[in-house]
């Protein structure tokens, strides 16, 4: 059985969970077994059933107020109980903070091999060989797993969301949950109106924006396009923008339809997080900037002069 660990935000699933389900269901098919999607936390029946649109025939839900705080120890114990209950042989997590925290604990418990950051289904299941991007996506490594139980973390926006409607049964499990040893003192929410990893259009700024005071036109462009905002790593390191906006090898991996790179050089570590975008539009004053090699459309010039004109043109088109 393939156990898919879904994540929800305030009781709602995001694109990430639908992608995990799409992947886990396809993997189960390849392995000629069934897939079970696990939901942790307070998620309504209607919301749980939305997983059926992506092939989840069975959804298991565990809800307890003690799960409001993500405590790795408690969550991994819960997942291992569910896995034992259903005889899970493969675990699928997202390749994000939560998934990367849980995967090794589960692997330790089940003496499983872990392949972190996969983007495709296995090349073969006997033997089990799966490839994963390495060197910031410049190459793929084929990994052969010999262990009976396997743990995979899936790069977000890599496999994609695939509709495959099925009838879904939801099972509520009552599992005793220990009191978390973690207390949340403060929560800072991402400020953007559109969730970055789910956004179809992303407007992103780099050091070429020169100062945090110059972000108003970038935000305005995002507003008129209905886009999310992002930034390069130095920009978030400088505190110009929140860390939640940092994209790249060490930040969020995104795959929007359109990615606007404004004053971003296009370093390999940056491209590692955005090169899956369907279309990249770059504005840079340096015609030799590496971003132009990755871009589908490029404008050579001063972003501060071009942005207001671009906003006006988009407004005209929208009108
Ligand atoms: C291990 C490691 C991991 C890393 N991970 C990441 C990561 O996840 N994400 C990431 O982004 N970086 C990452 N980096 C950093 C990365 O190598 C680059 O240093 C960084 O991406 C550069 O950011 P930038 O393009 O905003 O700044 P810069 O490299 O300073 O580029 C600024 C660009 O703006 C242009 N510009 C200047 N003025 C204007 C103007 N007026 N109009 C238009 N264009 C202008 C310049 O020509 C230049 O191309 C990582 C580095 C390391 C070593």
Question: How does this model look, in words?
Answer:
This protein has 319 residues and is an alpha/beta fold. It folds into two domains: 2-173, 3-Layer(aba) Sandwich (Rossmann fold); 196-318, TPP-binding domain (Rossmann fold). It is built from nine helices and 17 strands. It has helices spanning 15-30, 45-49, 72-86, 97-110, 215-225, 233-237, 268-274, 291-294, 303-318; strands at residues 2-5, 8-9, 12-13, 35-40, 58-62, 90-94, 113-118, 124-125, 128-134, 139-145, 150-154, 169-173, 201-205, 228-231, 258-262, 279-284, 297-300. It has a seven-stranded parallel beta sheet with strand order 7-11-6-1-4-5-12, sandwiched between helices. A five-stranded parallel beta sheet has the order 14-13-15-16-17. Strands 8-9-10 form a three-stranded antiparallel beta sheet, with no helix packed on it. Helix 5 (215-225) links the parallel strand 13 (201-205) and strand 14 (228-231). Helix 3 packs across helix 4 (97-110) and helix 5 (215-225) runs parallel beside helix 9 (303-318). The chain is globular and about 60 Å long. The chain starts with a strand and ends with a helix. The model has no long low-confidence stretch (mean pLDDT 95). Flavin-adenine dinucleotide is lined by residues 206-208, 232-235, 248-251, 263-265, 267, 269-270, 273, 283-286, 289, 302-304.
Essential attributes:
single chain, Rossmann fold, 2 domains, five-stranded parallel β-sheet, 9 helices, 17 strands, 29% helix, binds flavin-adenine dinucleotide
Helix content: 25-40%
Q: What proportion of the residues form beta strands (DSSP E)? A: 25-35%
Q: What is the number of helical segments per DSSP (H or I, 4+ residues)?
A: 9
Low-confidence segments: none
Biggest sheet overview = 7 strands, parallel
CATH class of the largest domain, named: Alpha Beta
Q: What's the overall average pLDDT, rounded?
A: 95
Number of strands: 17
Second CATH tier, the architecture of the largest domain: 3-Layer(aba) Sandwich
Terminus-to-terminus distance: 51 Å
Question: Strands across the major sheet, in which order?
Answer: 7-11-6-1-4-5-12
CATH superfamily of the largest domain: HUPs
What is bound: which ligands? flavin-adenine dinucleotide
- Gyration radius from CA atoms, angstroms: 21 Å
What structural category do the secondary elements indicate? Answer: alpha/beta
Order of helices and strands: EEEHEHEHEHEEEEEEEHEHEHEHEH
- For this structure, the CATH topology of the largest domain is Rossmann fold
């Amino acid at each position: 059985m393939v156990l898919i660990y879904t994540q929800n935000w305030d009781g709602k699933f995001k694109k990430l969970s639908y992608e995990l389900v799409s992947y886990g269901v396809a993997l189960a098919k390849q392995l000629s077994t069934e897939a079970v999607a696990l939901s942790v936390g307070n998620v309504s029946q209607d919301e749980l059933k939305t997983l059926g649109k992506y092939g989840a025939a069975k959804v298991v839900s565990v809800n307890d107020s003690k799960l409001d705080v993500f405590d790795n120890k408690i969550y991994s114990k819960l997942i291992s109980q569910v896995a034992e209950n259903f005889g899970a042989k493969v675990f699928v997590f997202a390749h994000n903070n939560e998934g990367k925290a849980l995967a090794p604990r589960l692997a330790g418990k089940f003496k499983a091999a872990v392949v972190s950051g996969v983007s495709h289904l296995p090349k073969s299941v006997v033997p089990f060989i799966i490839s994963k991007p390495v060197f910031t996506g410049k190459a793929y490594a084929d990994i052969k797993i010999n262990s009976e139980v396997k743990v995979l973390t899936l790069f977000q926006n890599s496999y994609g969301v695939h509709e495959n409607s099925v009838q879904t049964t939801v099972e509520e499990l009552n599992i005793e949950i220990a009191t978390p040893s973690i207390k949340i003192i403060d929560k800072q929410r991402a400020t953007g109106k559109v969730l970055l990893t789910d956004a179809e259009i992303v407007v992103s700024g780099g050091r070429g924006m020169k100062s945090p005071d110059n972000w108003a036109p970038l935000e305005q462009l995002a507003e008129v396009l209905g886009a999310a905002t992002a930034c390069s790593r130095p920009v978030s390191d400088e505190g110009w923008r929140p860390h939640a906006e940092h994209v790249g090898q060490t930040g969020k991996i995104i795959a929007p339809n359109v990615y606007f790179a404004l004053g971003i050089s296009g370093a390999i570590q940056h491209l590692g997080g955005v090169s899956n975008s369907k279309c990249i539009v770059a504005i840079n004053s340096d015609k030799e900037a590496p971003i132009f090699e990755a871009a589908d459309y490029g404008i050579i010039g001063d972003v501060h002069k071009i942005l207001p004109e671009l906003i006006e043109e988009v407004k005209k088109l929208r009108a």
